[in-house]
Amino acid sequence: MPLLKQKLNKLQIEDLRKFIQDKKRTGRETCRAQAVILLNDNSSREAIESLTGFKRRQPFRLRDKYLKFGADSLRDRKKGKPKELLTKKQLKEIIKLVKSKRPKDVDAYFVNDEFWSTGILARFIERRYDIKYKSKTSYYIIFKEAKFTFHKPGRVYEKHNEVEVAEWKEKYEKQIFQALDNPNIVVLAEDEMLLSTQTTFQKIWLPQGEYPKVEISNDRQNRSVYGFLNIKTGKEQAFKTEKQNMFETVGILKKVRAIYPDKKLLIIWDGAGWHRGSVVQEFIKKDQNIETIHFPGYAPELNPQEHVWKSGRDHCSHNHFIANIDTATDEFIAFLNNQKFQYSLVGFGAVS
Q: Is the pTM of this model over 0.70?
């Protein structure tokens, strides 16, 4: 079994022990907490399976969830009314603010945000009251209490092959986990996106009878962004380009190599032509220390870099008028490169 890169601290271990001792916990919930403790103690795979029933990577996934979301992540999923964490006084204050003010008027952190979205409300509550709900339903209820309705122009299209995804995981999961456990290998999830002066919209909440108006540009300009998420550290490296082709890709790979000059790189990306092009393959062959894996087609949910894009758009571009594409792209990249993203790849995420 691979050694852990980060041990639980004393408070976390005590938290798990109290969770186990709670008579309200089900047997399955108790086993989840026990698996996390046993894994932290470097117990053998056989011992963990014998005592808890969890096999292979399951204890690692439970541990990752616990580190991200706490003991709530170990509980059985239950339907019903979400747990209320805010006091009645706090809830009343939030509803009043949401109804009367824009995000930018209540906290300088949201200086560029004209409209309330679920994500903005969540960040505001966390910043103001140090409270974070596990479910979006709780935030929806707050908007409904404020008599808001949501508006989102948009569409969703997805073509997906579950069999192909399952075969991909079976083929590459072991290789990926071995790379993640090797300190001399950097594992990078890569993707590209287009940032445009054309305004994009995210669901926002407004009082009933009011409708959002966001200024849009008549002049459409684009910039490409290449993004590499270090799965071990959660560190993002994003780069601006004029376009996406194999020549631009090689230029970006050179910059990535400069960031990790002495490490082997395992890059996991999709099958785009500018990834498979001859110039790119020649560069990879010449480097002699880069290995690539291609995600299956039409499966963006496997790539954690997709979530990085969403976070960046939520913060920088949705519901915003973009006057200067280069300024906007630079701000977008600066935001990404100064964050850590705890997203997982086939069940394994950043631990530091």
A: no
